[in-house]
Every structure is written in structure tokens, then in C-alpha cells.
Design goal:
The protein has 332 residues and is an alpha/beta fold. Helix content is 49%, strand content 13%. Bound molecules: zinc ion.
Length: 332
């Protein structure tokens, strides 16, 4: 379903949602961390979503297994390295990998700056070994409140030049964008571009707020935009990218039925939709799988799929020169 004529890019993948179950198991043994299962196979059953969860918060709960074994900086480096390796093995040429320093640090109270450094190191080692281009996105985990997010931002800005942008993720309904205006201003003043999870577990107002209050130039999920034609028009007009993740949207309950996913309507409205996996470790999917779902379940035709693939290149947090180089690298 993915075209060979264009580079393959994914813009919405959580590093802390891409941890291999085999690595969770290995790290638990290495560090003597107890898990609520007695075999690797049982762990896979527990950590990977079997059908769907009741809501976003239960979905996020599944991410806890992966971060519960991050006992030191080496463990953080390992999961970063492997998640980039897995993306390269899927045939992806450019990936934006996002992670929350607080979420990865919390089980063992690791210093957030050392988590950031270990992850950036793992990403860059895997990028050169497997020939994939990677952009790092720093997540502010809204579920832990403004103070924790402020500390995350401090850690991220310590290595400002190694990040391509910033994100807001977590409990959208409980922690609205209005709480994070100052932090996003600080990030934007430091020259960071912003994407925000919005319209996944809350309504269209959350998307308006992400764009107008936080300065988001892309929206994670954005499914609720379908309820507001004026918002759809605005997003299309201002070329705000929509990072669609159909399997994740079904599993979190953002959509009750994948075949009615609004991405076809979004494309028809001229919105810059992209396709993404969100958390492939716990959803057990690949980017290719999401393109197949878009084609076979949602009903996108070949030209629509090509448009989506092209949108990912256009919406990437890269400079024009970097985008050009990415396209040229395919022709070599
Ligand atoms: Zn996400």
C-alpha cells in the first residue's frame, strides 16, 4: 500500500509505546524487577492490547509495563535504539520518535536529563547503524500536571538542538490545553515546533485550543474535528497536519468503528492527513498495517494513499533542505 516512489515517513510514534515485550522481559530479569506474570508469553498477552481498551486512560496503562523496567540510563538507551531499529526494519526512511522524559524516568526516579541523553544517544546510534533519519519529539505528559511538565521541558531544552519539536500527551480530558499555555510559549520562543494530542479523548474545542493557545502546527489524532465543519475548514486552510492513528483510535475508544474513521472526510476537506502507528509495541502493528487498514477498511483509494504518504513528508518537522535530501536519498 505504501508507494516505492516516495520516502516512507511516520510522524507519530511513541518511543515509550514501542518497547519490545522481549526487552521488557529481559530487562526485568537483568534488574530483578518483578512483573505480574511468570513467562514472556504471558507478558506479551498482558502488555499487548488483545482487542481494545475501555478508554484512553486504560490504553495508557498498558504503556506502564515498558517503562517499569527502565532501571537505568542503559535501559533507556536500549529501548530507544531498538525502537529505531524496528522502524528501519519496517522500511521507514524518516521517523519522528516522541518520548516523555518524566514517564520514562519515574519508575526509578532517574534524573530526567540523563534519560534525555540516553534516549538521544540510542536514537542517534541506531539511526547511523540502520540508515534511517530520525527526529526526536519531546513530550510533556499532561497527566502528571504542570509542574512535572515544566521539569520535562527543562530537561528537553537542555538539548534543544537535538529535538525537532514538542508534544503534549496523556489525559486530554483531565488536563486541558489552557494549563500549558506558558510552557508552550517557552518552547516556541526557543524555536520549537509543536504538535499536540487533541480531539482524541475530548471534543473539537480541544483542537481549537491546541492550535490557537499552544501554537500547534500539527494535531495528534484530531478525530473530533469531524464534529466541527468550521474547524475542518480552518485546519485545511492553515495546513495544520492531522496525525491519524486508526488502530489506536479504535483501541482507545476514540472511534467505535474503524470503517467510519473520519480520515476520508478529512482528506475530502483538503486536510493534511498522515497515517501513523502511535504505540506499535502495545498495539502490535506496523506503519504498513495502518496503510492497509486505510485502504481495506476505511476505503482510501491509491491516489488518496499516495496523498497521505506525501503529506507525511510535507508535514515533517524538517527543513526544506532536509526534505529535499530525503527525497533524493531514495533515488540513489
Ligand atoms: Zn500518541
Amino acid at each position: 500500500m505504501l508507494s516505492n516512489a516516495l520516502p516512507v515517513a511516520e510522524l507519530h510514534r511513541h518511543l515509550d509505546g514501542s518497547v519490545r515485550p522481549s526487552t521488557i522481559w529481559a530487562l526485568s530479569k537483568q534488574h530483578g524487577i518483578s512483573l505480574p506474570v511468570t513467562s514472556e508469553n504471558d507478558l506479551k498477552h498482558l502488555a499487548v492490547i488483545q482487542h481494545r481498551t475501555s478508554d484512553l486512560l486504560e490504553f495508557i496503562q498498558k504503556l506502564e509495563y515498558g517503562v517499569s523496567v527502565l532501571a537505568d540510563a542503559d535501559a533507556c538507551r536500549r529501548v530507544a535504539f531498538e525502537s529505531v531499529e524496528d522502524a528501519a526494519r519496517e522500511g521507514i526512511h524518516y521517523i519522528e520518535m516522541r518520548f516523555s522524559p518524566y514517564f520514562m524516568a519515574k519508575a526509578f526516579s532517574l534524573p530526567m536529563v540523563s534519560v534525555v541523553e540516553a534516549v538521544l544517544d540510542g536514537i542517534s546510534a541506531a539511526a547511523s547503524e540502520f540508515g534511517i533519519k530520525v527526529g526526536a519529539l519531546g513530550i510533556l505528559s499532561r497527566s502528571y500536571g504542570v509542574t512535572a511538565c515544566e521539569r520535562e521541558l527543562d530537561a528537553i531544552l537542555t538539548h534543544r538542538n537535538k529535538f525537532c519539536g514538542i508534544d503534549l500527551a496523556g489525559d486530554e480530558a483531565g488536563y486541558p490545553a489552557t494549563l500549558f499555555v506558558d510552557l508552550f510559549k517557552r518552547a516556541r520562543d526557543a524555536g520549537m515546533r509543536a504538535t499536540v494530542h487533541a480531539g482524541e479523548a475530548a471534543g473539537p474545542q480541544s483542537i481549537w485550543d491546541a492550535v490557537t493557545l499552544l501554537g500547534a502546527s500539527r494535531i495528534g489524532h484530531g478525530v473530533a474535528a469531524i464534529q466541527d465543519p468550521r474547524l475542518m475548514e480552518y485546519l485545511a486552510k492553515h495546513e495544520i497536519g492531522i496525525e491519524s492513528c486508526p488502530t489506536s483510535n479504535y483501541q482507545t475508544g476514540a472511534m467505535t468503528d474503524t470503517k467510519n474513521h473520519p480520515l476520508r472526510d478529512f482528506l475530502a476537506a483538503g486536510m493534511a492527513v498522515t497515517l501513523n502507528t502511535d504505540d506499535p509495541g502495545i498495539s502490535d502493528i506496523t506503519l504498513g498495517h495502518e496503510y492497509e487498514i486505510a485502504a481495506n477498511v476505511i476505503g482510501l483509494d491509491k491516489s488518496a494513499l499516495l496523498k497521505v504518504q506525501e503529506n507525511a513528508l510535507k508535514q515533517a518537522f524538517l527543513s526544506d533542505d532536509e526534505k529535499k535530501a530525503l527525497r533524493l536519498s531514495l533515488k540513489k
